From TrEMBL:
GO terms for biological process: response to antibiotic; siderophore biosynthetic process. Residues 16-178 form the N-acetyltransferase domain. InterPro entries: Acyl_CoA_acyltransferase, Acyltransferase_MbtK/IucB-like, GNAT_dom. It comes from Halobacillus aidingensis. The keyword Zinc does not apply. It holds the Pfam family Acetyltransf_8. One of its GO terms (molecular function) is N-acyltransferase activity. Signal peptide: none annotated. Pathway: Siderophore biosynthesis. This is Lysine N-acyltransferase MbtK.
Length: 193
């Protein structure tokens, strides 16, 4: 499986990488969707056959790309990078053509509460901003998920408004390229932990 993006993060002294998720990853992602820290927010703790159909549809969906996140080569997180245009979120604000959005989860429990969420998110947003026409990355975490909202804020996402989506009440958040780059312009700058 080829790596799509890789960066060494000085704050954790680890290499973060992302590779595209494929159908052979379905069992691992299904396992993560059933974890206690994941299913209340993702609501995808389905029987395997139903989840497999959902995942197959998601992998084939051309308006998003699914990734697995790795730290020092170990697969430990799941990501959905999507184009806002064509997504349900496009009705929540007036998006530009190349706005991107992000969904994520840390699946492996060993990586929870260990300071990895911010470096991972920062790496993915940097990856998304490699698309030159993208000037904004959007997040819509579950409004109850205080931990993730806090991490998004630390990364440079600004809370915009609570919004109602078909499957949840969410906090709409924007990360503008200019604000992100001014905050993280030095690759090795220590984050304000």
């Amino acid at each position: 499986m080829s790596i799509e993006f890789e960066i060494y993060d000085e704050t954790i002294q680890r290499t973060i990488a992302f590779r595209k998720a494929q159908m052979e990853d379905v069992a691992l992602v299904h396992k993560w969707m059933n974890e206690e820290h994941v299913h209340p927010f993702w609501q995808l703790n389905l029987p395997f056959d139903r989840f497999e159909k959902h995942f197959q549809k998601a992998v084939a969906d051309t308006h998003q790309t699914l990734y697995l996140g790795l730290i020092d080569g170990e697969v430990m997180s799941y990501w959905e990078a999507y184009w806002v245009k064509g997504d349900v979120i496009e009705n929540a604000y007036t998006p530009k053509a190349y706005d991107q959005g992000i969904h994520l989860l840390i699946g492996e429990k060993d990586y929870l509460c260990s300071g990895f969420a911010l470096p991972l998110l920062r790496a993915m947003v940097r990856f998304q901003f490699q698309h030159e026409a993208t000037t904004k990355v959007v997040a819509e975490p579950d409004i109850r998920n205080d931990k993730m909202i806090h991490i998004f804020k630390k990364c440079g996402f600004a809370p915009i408004a609570p919004i109602q989506l078909p499957d949840k009440e969410a906090q709409l958040m924007f990360c503008e390229r200019e604000a992100f780059e001014s905050r993280w312009n030095d690759e090795y700058r220590k984050a304000d932990f």
